[in-house]
Amino acid sequence: MPGADKHAAIIAIENHGYSVASGALACFASVLGKVAFDGDTPFQVQATSACEEHFPELALCNTVGRLVQGASLAGMFMVNAVMLSTFLKALQMSGSTVATVTNFSTNFVLSGISGRMVFGERLPALWFFGASLVVSGVVLLTGGSSPEGGKTSERIKGEGLTSTGQSTHSSSRKTTKDREKRD
After folding, report:
1. Domain segments of the chain: what residues?
2. Would you tell me the crossing angle of helices 61-94 and 2-37 to the nearest 10 degrees?
3. Pairing with 170, which of 23, 41, 52, 143 sits 20 to 30 Å away (CA)?
4. Which parts of this chain are annotated as the region Disordered (predicted)?
5. Is 26:107 a contact under the CB 8 Å cutoff?
6. Cα–Cα distance between 115 and 101 in angstroms, integer?
7. What is the pLDDT of residues 88-115, one digit of tens each?
């Protein structure tokens, strides 16, 4: 059954890919939001300084920062729209718990990294410890197989499994079979 395992791994990557993509888009929207609502981000300062350096006679150079803010605000709304559609696809593909936790953790980690790289924010050691715990939790939540042969993520999706792995919902077996047929 090596072919079946490979097929299942590809499906798992595709399913989690939507969650990771939506988390990355959420992070990007956050960066745009910070630029839009914070008046002294490096982008605005650099744009205003470049205008004043190249066009010292223009009195409108202060408005360049406002244009950057406006463009960032519009971009934030557009990126959020794409993120929401990607997140909805992730919910369909991998279930609400896995999609939400994967989205959150991706957004959390990338927001910290982008805060450091884009805005020069300092990250304390405790942040890295917390980020490693979040990532470890996502790996435990989304990976691996259970001893009963079912996927861990299927159990977490709220399909009503008892401690022995038996389904408490008669419709969940049908849903799982329908999902397997789609894949």
Report:
1. 2-130, 144-183
2. 150
3. 143
4. 145-183
5. yes
6. 21
7. 999 998 888 888 888 998 999 999 999 8
